Amino acid sequence: MRATLAKLPWSRAPEGEPAPRPAPIGAREQQQRLTEAFLPKAEPAFLARFAVLNLVGAALIAAAWAEGLLTKPFEADSTGMCYLISALFGWGLVCCLRRDWQSVRWAGNALVYLGMVGTVLGLIMTVSDLSADKAQSFESFKTVVTAIYVGSGTALYTNLLACIGYLWLGTNAHLLARQEV
What we know:
The chain is mostly helical. It has seven helices and no strands.
């Protein structure tokens, strides 16, 4: 973007003289200049690399769906963190396509933090349903096992999704722009 802005004609007036006013330009020409300055040109080579790289990811998602593994994190997570992690990952992929590497880095780091938050939420859910004063019966045992199952599912699946998303965004950034996330 800086290179494009540097190519625009800038004229400086000598000191003491008013700066010359640029010739008025039409709205379409102004829009064209702004588009060239702020949006990267679509290069077929970049788009092809992006498509091939992410088609591999789409094939892995299709394989997980065929095996019945795709919906398990969303079913096990009662907090909705898996949906948030998935939405952030999708936004990160859009930023990869736009070549907004700073936003990709931010999304990758946020995925890691959301995975940690999901893990802590899952552990809190596990511990909050446990108590020592419950009567020792089979029903209380079932309650304890259910609490452990639900809490650990949230903890592990949110962490898993966040790690996969972080690795995938990092792979995109590294292979498409040679950037570290």
